[in-house]
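Posting here for the record, re: pyridoxal-5'-phosphate.
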Amino acid sequence: MPTTNSPDPADTHIFSAVKTSLPPLSKDQAKGPEPDAGDPKKSTPTGALTLATLASKGPSTTAVHAGEARQKPGFSITDPIFASSTYTFPSTQSIIDFIEGKHPREEYGRYGNPGERVVEQKLAVLDGGEAAVLFSTGMAALVGLLMAHVNAGEEVVFFDECYHRSREFCRKHLTRFGVGFREVPTCDYAAMEAAITPRTKFIVSESPTNPHLSVVDIARFADIGKRRGVLSLIDATLCTPYNLQPLASGVDFVLHSATKYLGGHNDLLAGVVVGSQEKLDPVRHLRGIMGGVNSPHNAYLLERGLKTLALRMEQHNANGLAVARFLEGHPRVDRVLYPGLESHPYHSVATHTMRGFGGLVTFFLKAHSGPTFAAGSQLSSAPNNLADWRQTANVVDAVQIPRIGPSLGGVESLIEQPMVMSYWNYSPAERAAFRIPDNMIRLACGIEDSGDLIADLSQALDAI
Ligand code: PLP
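Prediction output follows.
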């Protein structure tokens, strides 16, 4: 193990891994049944062409091949799962060579894993970034990024529709370390400019936001950061690199909860930050200390999920648009938020910047005349023409294809009533401040057939 005074081998390692894109295996480690299996010198790593060549390929080609060696251990077409917490050295000299950066390889699981390096390179290429750092969750990625870059006495400014746990981390925890936190209304660029002070280190937004689906003009947002000399971050979880490329518009970092579309199968937790090598070096270094790494098995699952990202996103996009159009025309629906609809306040920005609009659809129900359940003290009363919380819950309970659950981005559709799922313990006044009315439903369309999802919603809306 390196001492705190020695150069961090993990940093050296990823630097050369990204530059050369060689699979980070020593010849000894990679030895399969055949002598040259997995030998980086004899293989032609697709990854070696990553930045130069794959950048000009389509998103599906990139998703399938980026970051992967042409020949892998055992001549396997898939990458192995390196279920190893530590890595051994053949001699003392090899340790010294490694520390001096002569032989990129792994040392200890908290600093990196060969499978993780592959998926990081794939993620970096997909987002058009130099490097990526994988974390155990999206929240770990946000915490790791901010903790690596923000110091006591500095402050961060968020658009106020960012994921509520991200803002909670800043409001309740970063402030304990002397870091200031401000929120300004989402897409109010003048307010963002006005909130920036000489102490501001970071501006942060999501796009589209969750669950309001506001779409940020990324170039404008990035320009504020550049002009004012502050770092900018876009949480692009809802759009993915398939629908939007925030780095190309000039932001410093893009972050994803890879738990969602990137993994895509509701079977893993992961988070990633993508950006320049230089700005991610301290993030990787801190991750090695914090220990917020993901598991070798999850790295494998994420790599597998990413291969179908483009295909899945096409279906999520198609389903989101078809379902949103259906809902907008339904007499029980008061209004629909979906960036692909002409009625959406940010439709124009979305059509100019996004390839598609994703699978998340938020809609609000009108009241119906049937009986409702008695309201508890924590519940607010709905305006007359709008459904109350229980009428809304009845629709959620009546659908048969989407399962009821938090999260989004998997192949299975999920539905939820945010007031119940995420805001039940908040007062009506707090929910009003978060703009989470009782009649709001969030539907995360999976990749089922659009017609089936629409027929199911139709029967649920008609049933109550
Ligand atoms: N960012 C957004 C937009 C999210 O929706 C979420 C989770 O719902 C996160 C970040 C946090 O991701 P994770 O659950 O992987 O920690």
